Amino acid sequence: MLNATHYALRTTHYAPLMTIHELRQKFLDFFKEKGHAIIPSAPLLPENDPSVLFNTAGMQPLVPYLKGEIHPMGTRLADAQKCLRTGDIDEVGDNRHLTFFEMLGNWSLGDYFKEESIAWSFEFLTSDRWLGIDPKKIYVTVFEGDADAPRDETSIGIWQAQYEVKGIAAEIGVAEKDEPAEVDGARIYLYPKSKNWWPGATAKGLCGPDTEIFYDTGLPHSPAFGAVCHPNCDCGRFVEIWNNVFMQFNRVEEGGSLEVLPKKNVDTGMGLERTAAVLNGFTTVYDLDVFQVIFREIESLCDKQYGKEEAVDRSMRIIADHVRSATFAIGDGIIPSNVQQGYIIRRLIRRAIREGRRIGITESFCDKIANVVIGEFGVQYRELETKRSEIIAELVKEEEKFSKTVANGMKELERILEKGVMTSEQAFMLYSTYGFPLELTEEIVRERGGSVDHEAFMAEFEKHQELSRTASAGMFKGGLQDHSAETTRLHTATHLLHAALRKVLGDHVQQKGSNITAERLRFDFSHPSKMTAEEIAEVERLVNGAIQKDFPVTMEVMSPSEAKESGALGFFEQKYGDRVNVYTVGNDQTGVFSKEICGGPHVEHLGELGGFKIQKEEASSAGIRRIKAIIGVGH
Ligand code: SER
Questions:
Q1: Strand partners, 584
Q2: Angle subtended at Cα 524 by Cα 628 and Cα 58, rounded to the nearest 5 degrees
Q3: Average pLDDT in the 205-218 region?
Q4: How far is 239 from 217, CA to CA, in rounded Å?
Q5: Are 292 and 173 found together in one domain?
Q6: Does residue 199 have a cis peptide bond before it, meaning omega lies within 30 degrees of 0?
Q7: CA-CA distance, 421 to 107, in Å (whole number)?
Q8: Residue 246's domain is classified under what CATH number?
Q9: What is the rounded average pLDDT of the residues 218-233?
Q10: Is residue 398 within 8 Å of residue 367, measured between CB atoms?
Q11: How confident is the model at residue 467 (pLDDT cuts 50, 70, 90)?
Q12: Is 61 in the pocket of ligand 1 (CB under 6 A)?
């Protein structure tokens, strides 16, 4: 599957050819040898994290454990986590960006810290038993220190010792300064928080310095990117392959001061596809075998070939990436729809179909690509095999639906264009009534020499679509988002609902799942039968009563047994850390309305919520009911 140039390139690289499956396996085997439990990837759909639509980083599903909950598999974990980032959806196809990718990670939950983390990373990368990379090709970056937090001297010292064993005198590099740095001698580069701090320089919560590991591709530096080349230079010579985050602080408030954590964690992330690509000497992830097999399938469906024409390559890359993402997403139960995650998946599929038409594929094809994806990944991700027929059926259905949509929308579009120019209101009507994609409208109008006012369309869209609120809250972007005020309010409302359900239906009610978006809360709980209208009204009355009385919300830290004794709700079958946060709504004066073990965050006063309303009560699965509710409505 690899062309001659790739083979030639590869011979100039020390690393042997490796597939992503081999790299993944080596990574997990290595950390298993170092006493790590290998945990399965969490689904793409975050279970209890309202701040993101999908898991966008390896650490996301582990946040509760990084915050102190006890992980049932212990304090040393390693995994390959499925991630989906759609923030840069328009950049997919450019040969660097992927929407779906796997992130390899090793985790210390209050176990080892910098010494082992750095030494193991270096061993994995350079030992002949593992990746066998020439240590001279490894460059690292470390936090340089500022008024808020000190320079990470420990990491600098550990790195120097590691290089020394390999006979490399690792000088400290001067980065981002105008004078030329001796790149040949320097291996350790210091940067400020903007580069070497996770998650954000001022973000609230667990944080700390990180050390990032770069691979020197040997490509020449381009002066267009600055006089001096250094690891964070964008010229393409250095590629980041690993990020080791040392969570040693808690920032009490956004922009506030740092507290030293009693238990320090390590969170590392290695982008699987990107790392495999650079180690193979590829200039693009799409040279990897997993994508090449998909291209062969696409080629069999049209009369085009990959590697001949940039525009065709771009279409094929978009198809390969988007259908791979959709396959994994549907495998995790995310069904194409018009809202939330389902909408993103629908967009990915439709964009793939459009690119397919562009290169001359006339038949239904997403299902065929999905079969290739499942063939490629079904061993590592069994859910793809077990859900194969469902994935295929959804894709076929989606493709049929889109064909109809396009056919109907085209007729209407032609009618509009026959009469004159397309207004933004008409473009929006095509979108809202016919489901006709704006990008398609824009393209056709452009072909006829006109244009659609994009901003006016978006203004129209904002007026009509609640989804845009999610978008403006930043939820389509990759990375960790801070909890928005709205999701915090909904989170508190979830506690109220939980307590009220127990008061109205009985103590058998237990939380079985919770999901919060910027618009609504969703709560799954154990209860054998459909709730009556009276029961629903009573739950709403109790919750709204508490909100109207503006009960205070307070947090105390205690041991799990104290929490249980005090009547706090919690998942006691799960093992908690030594200390847990207990959130109480109400107090001795007002009466306690709700008390739960929870990581937060919550509002301080219920008055902030506004009126609470249950929109839907339905079955979720056998013995489990599901409620969707909103807040901020008039009482
Ligand atoms: N949290 C860090 C990242 O996502 C390391 O895993 O890059």
A1: 554, 595
A2: 100
A3: 94
A4: 7
A5: no
A6: yes
A7: 58
A8: 3.30.930.10
A9: 87
A10: no
A11: very low
A12: no
